[in-house]
Design goal:
Length: about 450
């Protein structure tokens, strides 16, 4: 999933064979890949800031937006999420131009447009919060990460706890919605210490909390330290205790989990991130950004619910959703989006066939465009949908996959999982019980392989 971590459930996806109808909602993810400093736990597509040229980025971002619109003009825009990296390093004028371009291109989805931006609590970024709000951002996601200075130093953060609190005050004065990120299950962290830190954050009255267990990702500085034994994250039992404590404290405070790591007061959930978990469309713009988009072509032989689709001259697959991935390196993405680079694929598709998508792929800055058959698309939607507290909408899955939905989750498989207490049937929703939610990935895998 794209971003560091990005409302009422929108209408479902178009059925296979549709290239996007006026009923389809989608979100835009804009990736700003630069940071002043790379955190030791981070494995996202980020690079140290090298004073990027705002005008160059404006042209490239607008080119990619327009190229996406040329292929998918009928989608309705529900959300824009600026992630990274550190998008609060972006010039506010550039943020405004991206928002203005996107809203001029696509019609609006029902309800207010959610425009989120991730920010660090440093004083330089904090000074621009009002400018970001004036540019059209209405939701700020603040990377607090800890309320303890020693923990912040361990996490490689440049701000202090006092600066984080000041940034929260400023953010709440500027934006309609504010979310705060915290990382727990840190080395040597006790339940008592985490409980006190969590209570302090809840007492600040933030409406949305994203609370992530620290994971040691391969290739990061923390992975090297863990290999040397210089840091020791809590073991599985302690991590489970910290997770359970997190659920209890947030629920008691009126911030229940609506997704495994995300907690919100009523009406404060992230609309953009719900698009991911519900299996809706989103376009990834910027270096290394991922997307999930409707079929490019709706050929007359495409069959709704088809697991294979029909090959077309577009180089994609008619009737199949598309997984997209932008060029990872900023310069490669810029060159492609601005038409200054030859196609890396040599004009060939994934299987070596001639790829007529090459010209528009260049304008979007996309390196890969792959069709997802019904099985692959369905597995992804099951894995993500079960993360929601409300569970997976089986009717939506059936609408999106057709007959393939029953083959993906046959009745006997669901009956066995329910008998074992792994899932519950709430009408036409499949829900993982709260006390088993930490095992969601394992349960989803079992459902898909049983």
């Amino acid at each position: 999933m794209p971003g560091n971590r990005g409302e009422p459930a929108p209408p479902g996806l178009a059925q296979a064979g549709s290239s996007g109808t006026a009923g389809d909602v989608f979100g835009l993810y804009i990736h700003w890949s630069y940071c002043v400093r790379i955190c030791p736990y981070c494995d996202f597509n980020v690079y140290k800031s090298r004073s990027p040229d705002p005008e160059l980025w404006r042209r490239a971002l607008q080119s990619s937006l327009k190229a996406h619109h040329a292929r998918w003009p009928n989608l309705r825009l529900a959300s824009i999420f600026f992630g990274g990296g550190t998008p609060s390093l972006m010039p506010p004028g550039l943020v405004r131009d991206v928002i203005d371009t996107a809203t001029a291109l696509w019609p609006a989805a029902p309800g207010p447009l959610e425009v989120s931006l991730e920010a660090n609590p440093g004083s330089a970024e904090r000074a621009r919060f009002a400018d970001f709000a004036a540019a059209g951002v209405n939701r700020l996601s603040l990377g607090v990460q800890a309320l303890d200075d020693d923990a912040l130093a361990l996490l490689g953060r440049d701000h202090s706890a006092a600066e984080a609190l000041a940034a929260l005050d400023t953010a709440r004065a500027c934006f309609a919605q504010v979310s705060a990120d915290l990382i727990y299950a840190r080395p040597d962290q006790t339940p008592a210490a985490w409980g006190a830190e969590l209570d302090a954050m809840i007492a600040l009255g933030v409406d949305h909390l994203s609370l992530y267990q620290l994971t040691i990702e391969p290739g990061t500085a923390f992975a090297a330290k863990a290999a040397r034994g210089t840091i020791r994250p809590p073991g599985p039992d302690r991590a489970a205790d910290l997770y359970a404590l997190t659920q209890d404290r947030t629920a008691a405070a009126g911030l229940p989990a609506y997704e495994i790591s995300n907690h919100a007061r009523p009406d404060a959930e992230s609309r953009h991130n719900r698009l991911y978990w519900q299996g809706d469309w989103y376009a990834g713009i910027g270096p290394g950004a991922h997307g999930r988009l409707p079929p490019l072509d709706a050929g007359p032989t495409a069959e709704p619910g088809s697991e294979t689709g029909t090959a077309t001259t577009s180089g994609a697959t008619s009737g199949a959703a598309l997984a997209t991935l932008a060029h990872r390196r900023p310069q490669a993405w810029l060159d492609a989006a601005l038409g200054q680079a030859s196609q890396e694929s040599g004009g060939r598709g994934a299987a070596g066939a001639p790829d007529a998508t090459a010209p528009w792929r260049g304008a979007t800055g996309l390196a890969e465009v792959e069709p997802l058959d019904a099985r692959a698309r369905g597995e992804e939607m099951v894995m993500l949908g079960l993360r929601l507290a409300e569970g997976l909408d089986l009717d939506a899955l059936a609408r999106r996959l057709g007959p393939a939905a029953e083959r993906l989750l046959p009745g006997p498989t669901l009956d066995r999982a329910a008998a074992a207490g792994l899932v519950e049937r709430h009408g036409r929703r499949l829900v993982i019980p709260a006390h088993r939610r930490a095992l969601t990935d394992a349960i989803a895998t079992r459902l898909l392989t049983d």
